[in-house]
Amino acid sequence: MKLPYSLASRVAVFVVFTLMSANALSAVDNIVINWPAKTSGSINPILVYELQILEEAKKSSADIKPAAYVTAIPAQSGVPTPVPAPVSFFYAENQTMLYDIYVSQSSTVSKSTTWKHCQLSLVNGQVVSGQTTCGGATKTDNSTSTVGVYSFGTNFVTTIAKPPKGYMNYLWNVAPSRSVTIKNSTGNKICFNMSSKFNKSQCTGTGDIRIDNGSQHVITVSEVGAMSHVGFITGSYDDSIWTYSGNMPKVGVYATALEWSIFPSKSVGSSEAGKTDHTIGMTNVDLSAVNGYNFAATLSVASDSICSTAMRDSAGNAQPAKYAVYSGVIAELPTSGIILKNQCPRDSLVSNLSDFKGCLSPCKLTIKNGRSTDFQNKVCCQGSTYGSSTACTAATIDWNGKSLKHDKLPYVKNLASPNTENVYRWQFDDYVGDFSCQPETSLVYTIYSANSSR
Length: 454
Hints:
With 454 residues, the chain is mainly beta. The protein has seven helices and 31 strands.
């Protein structure tokens, strides 16, 4: 299945306006706005009101609820440094959208806080200059057919104005409910573990979870998030014996890796249920064969989601962010009709093809074969010489008598499209399959046997 590719940036500040029809996402209805960030990467609080709703609310005496309250993601345990810039998502019902934007002139908000205001007007994805007062509002070149991208000038708000009535009662966001589901479609029982130190057992070791064929294991993500988590399928049971795979002495884990980072929905010390005083970071997720693979798998979003993928040019340099709307399966190892074990180069097989227990990546294979430290560093993209994306992308490797770059190594090449889609295959291959999705996204990994097509 061919999926849209998009780009990601880990340092820019975005607010994403998700403009939808009543029942479905559509082109030009999805808008990304790059907020000018401070040098430190943090921003002062921002209140965003949908003008149509604002005008209706003014007719009553009730407090007026903003469409969003945007603040910096807090630095806390488990959150990477530098802390990613906040991203917010909005829902609207038509293509003519007017937004009132208020930016606090201090990092904290009180009744005496000074605010500055501007208005953004969009019609069919285009900025209406006569109605837009946000300075420097433009549609950027990295817009796509499904998502429009916009930016403002550095000082885009200049008019002093206080937000609408009751804004002090809405300085929070609703924490989303999120989960990661592992589905078993292998035909046998499987053993799931989230530790890289899993051992051979009857799936009764520390952290082992048995999942029957046709069943699933649901991981509910709590308010503390789930940063830098990874799961492995460590074995299967065919009604007579457990067969283990994915870990090898001296080589380490080579199993198919299910990786996700889901940001906390609470600041440290926050206690009010269902609310968060900060903007939640994007969910990062991938389906990885960087170390090898032992089971086939797909990665899906549980419902329509706006996501981006990290993107690099041919020299390994990071590129600007682009977003796309994804639905259902977003990554496949392998694609339908392909038998995964048949994609493994013969010298990378862990066992005989008839008794397939996995395939070692080039990095793991060099470790198994005891190659020199310099050679291992080059293949594994590590160390001071090869540890950067630019250096490792440019490196050529003497592989079985041929001078090859990483993306031309047999293991990596065999996992290229159309054999797989959006799978992370080598250390700086993140532009293919490292997704950043809106915080509300729930994830589904479906596990299949590597011995047959699905």
